[in-house]
Amino acid sequence: MKANTKSILEIMNVVSWIVFIGLCVQAGAVAVSFAISLFVNPEAAQDLYQKLDLQDLYNFGTGHYLVIGLLKILLTVLKAVIFYLVIRIFKNLNINRPFSFEIAMLTRVISYVAFAAGLIAMAANGYTEWLIGQGVTMQKDWAGQEWLFLAGIIFVVAIIFTRGVELQSEHELTI
């Protein structure tokens, strides 16, 4: 293996850790800001994490506000889970034997998590459209289709990895 490839993989591992930690912090910040707006200061709904303004939704109904808050937290947690799984891939990666059962399974699980995030985002998008139709002013930025597309691509990669594991095993048996 070239030293350049090893360096790139190490850099990608470090970047994955940074993104994972950032997403964990973001999920915590979103959860805390929603909790504060629900239980301590309802005025905080107009300036949530990253300038998210859901004051109109809060005034429309706290139940709807809670659902949107939980969906935002859930999607952020799912992003963090994906990067945790990527970190596990780097931990299990042996560049001399890249096709392993663990890598294939982790890749498949990533596709399932991305698919679940896509379905949740699509449902959240429909719910948000309904709320907007009820007169609530809010952003509609769930990106459900992108999640589903990502899930499809990763699933294809997982299938390729599974086939690679089979071929690598057959090759070892013939030698």
Overall description:
- This protein is mainly alpha-helical and 175 residues long.
- The protein is 79% helix and 0% strand.
- Helix 3 (62-92) runs antiparallel to helix 4 (101-133).
- The longest helix has 37 residues, at 3-39.
- The radius of gyration is 20 Å and the shape is elongated.
- It starts with a helix and ends with a helix.
Characteristics:
single chain, 175 residues, mainly alpha, elongated
What secondary-structure arrangement, pairings included, does this model have?
Elements: H1 3-39, H2 55-60, H3 62-92, H4 101-133, H5 144-174
Helix pairs in contact: 1-3, 3-4, 4-5
Order of helices and strands: HHHHH
Q: Give the helix tally.
A: 5
Low-pLDDT ranges? none
Strand-residue fraction? under 5%
What's the count of strands? 0
Distance between the termini: 22 Å
**Which value, in Å, is the CA radius of gyration?**
20 Å
The oligomeric state of the chains shown is single chain
What global shape is seen? elongated
Mean pLDDT: 89
